[in-house]
Specification:
The first copy, chain A, has 226 residues and is α/β, with parallel strands linked by helices. Chain A contains 8 helices and 9 strands. In chain A, strands 3-2-1-4-8-9-7 form a 7-stranded mixed sheet, with helices on both faces. The mean pLDDT of chain A is 92.
Chain lengths: 226, 226, 226, 226, 226, 226
């Protein structure tokens, strides 16, 4: 059960499916009204990929491609804030300082990306670290981290608990599957240096989020800072 | 032929078709490099409608729905600026004052929407007025304004030239078709008070834009301020 | 009686008469301290007209003339905030997003105009819509909307209640007097789309404001969204 | 003759008289188009005094009274920029950093006040110092600094040239008249530390400004940094 | 005993000694948690002097030298805010308006300098005046204001209480020692016009601060507004 | 010889030694006036370490420690801009968008850090990528990258040229010395994805910088994108 404030990272995937998005919005509101304080970080999803592909074909540089992805993730943040406008800070912060100010208002803060060259996973960890939060809930569309891709490898083993250091090593040696969209070494190194625990939750079924936050159930993989 | 700086309003339609968008980008660059100075105003298109529909179903207020549309139009502006990054101001202005500052740099400025409660057509006219431009080229996906919907009414008459006052009256009495997405009374009243001429150009074929700007050919409808 | 938060639109007229202004300030404070939450939108008044006239003679464009009017309305907002500094947000917001942030502080927020091309009546409706307020109190220097100008036409009829749609039609056909400075079609169309009720209150006598807000008495004309 | 960039301080007095203002605007434009680069700092004049008086009666604190004066001086700056919009930076900077950015655009920059607790004379000197200008032209409504008030004292002596140090001493001992609205010790101490020369020019007759800048004639009092 | 909100001016001196700084931080937190509301204004200290000296040798203008000092004082403010991050507003305001907004959050606000040409003592008074505070506690590294330098003059007399007017006169005639780093005429004139009392407290021993704020003991010199 | 615009990364080390700093400033100015366009990114140096240590002892979180380092690097940027104020953009940008705007002015732009969680090396690469620069000159206080620490290992081999991929691998396996302060995997991954070449230049002797930029001589290690 999470009693302290946490970051909820919602992958862009959630914005590709209208029903899934509305379910998530409903559950976030339920958690909020039950007193669970959080900041939501939204990804860009397939829309970001579509726009980035167009710009890449036209020769845009990588930094601007990232800017486009950020712009989509912020659009997603605004969409969610609009749906939750009775509890949300409807102005979307665009950096850590604005996020701090929004957080002081006591409203539900929702942010997208901040800057080229970093994933929204990294944004989630940076916000947690800046505000002193110790928990990041990664609402993903997989059920856990595996030792290899379970779709391919019959020996793939589901990982229940792993340290950030071990996971960084596994990512480097590419012996771990399914984390590409979830976590990158930079995000993990921030978790490590600031003792932040990351929980991978399978949000294909949104109720997992509620049962995890309220009762501590159904975590896929717990990534511990040590 | 347009020798003075002008506003190029690109409907969101152009962003629904990748090939059309890249063609437009190429032609804008060609015009710019030929010395035609302009500011581009982009719309939101079908993506804006999709996102707005999701938020509307979830009960978001009209102001936030407009904010979502603005966010999409600004995403479109950033996409176009990324494609044209060698000539464009890649930071997208979000109000008239920022647009002025961007314009002083001598780079191609691209903006989306500014504020809830106004169309991108109105933004196009507001920018023209603020900077003292006298021409707005409305790059549309129809060939002209008609007296009624030509798809329905065999007596529909294509209008080559009309004054803003007459068009405002026609819009009020709903005897004119095809302008809904193009122009609204507020945009027209700004054109009128500041003597700005609006040119409807059929950009389904992007070359129309070039032949209009370079040679004054192929205007669909000219809306004159008096 | 107004129990929900509302917008109080103060015409610039109130700033032309020092005694009237101080009376209004006193009553706003009384209402605020009685728990009536509101955002005040101030107009430009005769000072705006004087400054605009000078710039017009010198050939300034309409957009800059509007900017001058906005600057005066913001000066008026600052004057009122200074008088009410123990309850007011003394930094004057200049757009919807800043207004939202100021509103989250729990202080009395006072704004002037935002952008060229829109009246302060429109600003009042835009702020109401953005924040989800359903009531705009238009503190005017007439007692009601009439079917024609009562100073000229002995058959002029005072309107107690009218829908936004009907009023828009009357404004278009120019059969209604006295609304020119109060309301414009754009403001009314926002009221309509977002179900906001507008109350015309005669504030030449400031106590009307208090009796209206506290007891629901003395409304001049009620403009209903449907 | 002034060949280097200079600050032109226009007292708020110039904004109390429409004809005088338009004359000044015409001459500033003439100087600018002749290649004389300058930044204009505008005061608040009688309008500032009127607004400040209202707020003072209502008990506003001194800081907010100054804020009101700043707001009026910025309104005056916008009025002048609107009149000169073909050469001016129509967005009015509100601090030194924004003034620097505006100056890099090559347009005529016009500012009002910046911050409570400082006169527009001080703003003029601060801008000069920040940008490395060595000349401040104080366009006043008196012809020179005098040893005492010439309207009262038949022995009053007109001062043609004085050092900042001497003038500071005279101001402290109150043996000098007519500088109250012109200069204060803080402004003079900045002139002194940064070797900036201040020229008092009688702008009741605007041509004095042109003959001073173009030919070095008609300076009332020259205040030298040493 | 100070029950109302006050400004705590910490001289840059406190940042030259790590132990002293941490003691101050601890005591500020203790006072804050006891319900004493304050805004802290930090100076630049010896680090500011070192950086300014380098730039001065290289010919930087006085305004930029001041900017460097401001930058150091803001760095010091951030250092203190980081140490006190559980109660502090960790985003450092850079002008009066941002300070107001930070103050509305209810957190401990810490600021450095604002603008070239003014001391941090002046900033302390400007913030007090803007927010309506009536007390400035000047946490200094001397025990009081003296009639002359007690290290040099055996007849130096310690001043327990003095009015701002008298102190301004003494500063002008240079008959008072030890105030150079504490107070300047501009800061004092703001105290005078807004009836703000300044308390010089010897913070070489940090407990003096606590005994002064909690019990009204150990003030060195009280500078009264009249 | 570098003819295209480049990033000059100055380690904080240069700010620890006044003479070295002034030499660098002189040479940067010489290069600039010879037509070599660049953006300078400054580090924090020993001052950053000192301040961070104080905050760390007091328990500040890692994000705020990084913020303190950024604040020092920005102070260093301002110091350098003040020394070079006749060619520099004296307002220091704090993110990529502000850097773009500053760059459009044609002045020498100097930036420090941007955001917690990233090194100034990463900032250097991010700015290069955003603006489309293809060269980063890393002005370091070592002469090259070595296979191991030459002070310890007699078999240490100096590396003249290495690819970003190889260097990332070496960094991971810790078989390379002396890069800790220079480069991190994130910075290198940006260089790789955007084909940016990094040149390690020994700036303990500042003339190396000039001979490298003007004649292509004296590069320590060249890190190629492929």
């Amino acid at each position: 059960m999470l009693k302290e404030p946490f970051i909820l990272k919602m992958s862009g995937h959630a914005f590709d499916d209208e029903e899934l998005l509305l379910s998530h919005a409903r559950l976030i509101k339920e958690l909020w009204n039950d007193g669970h304080k959080m900041i939501v970080v939204t990804g860009g999803g397939s829309l970001a990929r579509r726009y980035i592909n167009i710009a890449r074909k036209a020769g845009a540089n990588e930094s601007l491609l990232d800017s486009i992805g950020i712009s989509v993730s912020r659009l997603n943040a605004l969409l969610l804030a609009s749906i939750l406008s009775d509890i949300a800070h409807v102005v979307i912060p665009s950096n850590l300082e604005e996020t701090f100010k929004a957080w002081t208002t006591g409203r539900l803060v929702i942010v997208g990306g901040f800057q080229p060259g970093q994933s929204t996973a990294t944004v989630a960890l940076l916000v947690a670290e800046y505000l002193g939060f110790k928990h990041v809930v990664d609402c993903a569309n997989i059920d856990a981290v595996y030792t290899s891709d379970p779709k391919v490898d019959p020996n793939a083993r589901r990982i229940d608990r792993i340290s950030t250091s071990e996971l960084i090593n596994m990512l480097r040696s590419k012996t771990v599957a399914g984390t590409y969209d979830l976590l990158d070494p930079w995000a993990l190194s921030i978790a490590k240096r600031s003792s932040i625990t990351i929980y991978i939750i399978n949000c294909s079924s949104p109720n997992n989020l509620v049962s995890f936050v309220k009762q501590g159930l159904n975590a896929g993989t717990i990534i511990t800072p040590t």
